[in-house]
Amino acid sequence: MKTAHVKRAFKYRFYPTDAQAAELSRTFGCVRKVYNLALAARTQAWTRQERVNYNQTSAMLTAWKKTEELAYLNDVSSVPLQQALRHLQTAFTKSRKSAEYTTSAFRFRDGKLTLAKMAEPLDIAWSRPLPEGASPSTVTVSQDAAGRWYVSLLCEDRSVQPLPATDAAVGVDVGLDHLLTLSTGEKISNPRHERPDRVRLAKAQRQLARKAKGDGANRAKARWKVAKVYARIVDRRRDHLHKLTTRLVRENQTIVIEDLAVRNMVKNGSLARAISDAAWSEFRSMLEYKAQWYGREVIAIDRWFPSSKLCSVCGTLRDKMPLSVREWTCDCGTTHDRDVNAAKNILAVGLTASVCGAGVRPQRSTPGGHSVMKQKPLRREP
């Protein structure tokens, strides 16, 4: 039986020449134009109760290129334009400044990557080696808000193999005072990545707010300063989450988490900044795809499960548990740390759902097809 190998995206920063930067900027602009035109065509067809598929939008692209108004679309590689149509077909959203190249639109030879319409290879900072013998199947070039250029190479990585099975399982309760509390009793502090740059960020935002909208160059420079501070914050946060999720996946066969509605939670003005900085959604995403890579299981229980109010020893459910209560004593005499107790309950209900299958339904799948399960909330008996 043939083993299916994991495909991983290896992302590197690169430093384009002026000519390469100009070519990529043109390509980004054309990709956005084609995507928006195709989206408009699909939307209009939908109002007429008609469907437009990829082949039809591809034919539209050919026609657009023949018009005087859109003839400039011929000046860039056609592959990123076609890829934009494919992503639209699958409702795939990408960065506003990105372009994807398939094998027919790039050359990777002797560790050098050259894109279509370019004479010279990209000057890539190879911060880590590609897997031995790797041959990229797609290359995605992007530019972030801080103006940094990145190239992502999708390769088959034969080194990623399932880890040896273990009986270890852990429940995870996310929070703000502590980023994670584990059912083992361990508490992982919240680094609050945004805090060290808060003064610098506020200053940059004030400077941007003072710039008139018509002041193009100065406003763009002020916007870049804000983006640069944000980029530092995001880099630190992502690095921390990668280390944390890798550790959890390596140490545990089963990881049980709560299915939190983060998008709704950030609407709370007083907590939005802290919740966004904690990056719970990104934590979960990393956890799920790494579990898929290494043969682990992630189980998500329903967000309404009363993990904080339920005694993990005797099962007594309290009527109320204000957020200000961090420690409480049950009628059975057990004194609980609120977060540790919640993590223990999260683990217990997740394992019960996994073994019994009662009240379990598929929640979602990761890109690798790994199903994550969702537990229906337990209701208190009258």
From TrEMBL:
<feature type="domain" description="Probable transposase IS891/IS1136/IS1341">
    <location>
        <begin position="155"/>
        <end position="268"/>
    </location>
</feature>
<dbReference type="Pfam" id="PF01385">
    <property type="entry name" value="OrfB_IS605"/>
</dbReference>
<dbReference type="GO" id="GO:0006310">
    <property type="term" value="P:DNA recombination"/>
</dbReference>
<dbReference type="InterPro" id="IPR010095">
    <property type="entry name" value="Cas12f1-like_TNB"/>
</dbReference>
<dbReference type="InterPro" id="IPR021027">
    <property type="entry name" value="Transposase_put_HTH"/>
</dbReference>
<comment type="similarity">
    <text>In the N-terminal section; belongs to the transposase 2 family.</text>
</comment>
<dbReference type="Pfam" id="PF07282">
    <property type="entry name" value="Cas12f1-like_TNB"/>
</dbReference>
<dbReference type="GO" id="GO:0032196">
    <property type="term" value="P:transposition"/>
</dbReference>
<feature type="domain" description="Transposase putative helix-turn-helix">
    <location>
        <begin position="6"/>
        <end position="49"/>
    </location>
</feature>
<keyword id="KW-0862">Zinc</keyword>
<dbReference type="GO" id="GO:0003677">
    <property type="term" value="F:DNA binding"/>
</dbReference>
<keyword id="KW-0238">DNA-binding</keyword>
<feature type="region of interest" description="Disordered">
    <location>
        <begin position="361"/>
        <end position="382"/>
    </location>
</feature>
<dbReference type="InterPro" id="IPR001959">
    <property type="entry name" value="Transposase"/>
</dbReference>
<keyword id="KW-0815">Transposition</keyword>
<keyword id="KW-0479">Metal-binding</keyword>
<dbReference type="Pfam" id="PF12323">
    <property type="entry name" value="HTH_OrfB_IS605"/>
</dbReference>
<feature type="domain" description="Cas12f1-like TNB">
    <location>
        <begin position="280"/>
        <end position="346"/>
    </location>
</feature>
<protein>
    <submittedName>
        <fullName>Transposase</fullName>
    </submittedName>
</protein>
<dbReference type="GO" id="GO:0046872">
    <property type="term" value="F:metal ion binding"/>
</dbReference>
<dbReference type="InterPro" id="IPR051399">
    <property type="entry name" value="RNA-guided_DNA_endo/Transpos"/>
</dbReference>
<comment type="similarity">
    <text>In the C-terminal section; belongs to the transposase 35 family.</text>
</comment>
<keyword id="KW-0233">DNA recombination</keyword>
